[in-house]
Amino acid sequence: MKELLRTKGFKVTPQRELIFRSFFELGRHVTVDELYQKVREKDNSIGYSTVWRNLKLICRVGLAEEVNIGDGLTRYDRTTAAPHGHLFCRRCKKLLEFNVERIVGILAQAARENSFTLEGFKVEIQGLCEDCRRVPDRECDQGKAN
Ligand SMILES: [Zn+2]
Ligand SMILES: [Zn+2]
To answer: How remote is the CA of residue 85 from the centroid of ligand 1, in Å?
Structure first.
């Protein structure tokens, strides 16, 4: 992790190292809150804004990217993870992933046909997950009211 920070031109501080390492330990779809909790478990002197700033930094150097699903919460995906699409459940806000291998070829072809160089893409499916599909809308809403 230290080497990585250095090659990206960062000053290596123990705090920064801890934040970066925690992010990569958490893996995918990390929110600032989750990262903050994880960092605080090890060092509770680190403030929220420091965590947030460093997370932005991780994105800026291309190690992670923002995932905005439309529920107002920004999640962060490490870019070293294999390309994948997202399935977002509008009810329980669960974020699942699926393999996009089949789609990549089609997207690359669409780019070629338009004399476009493909550098990245986002695939997102919105709907209901298996668990939520079993519960009718009405029951769910009543549950929420209680
Ligand atoms: Zn993801
Ligand atoms: Zn769901």
So the answer is: 7
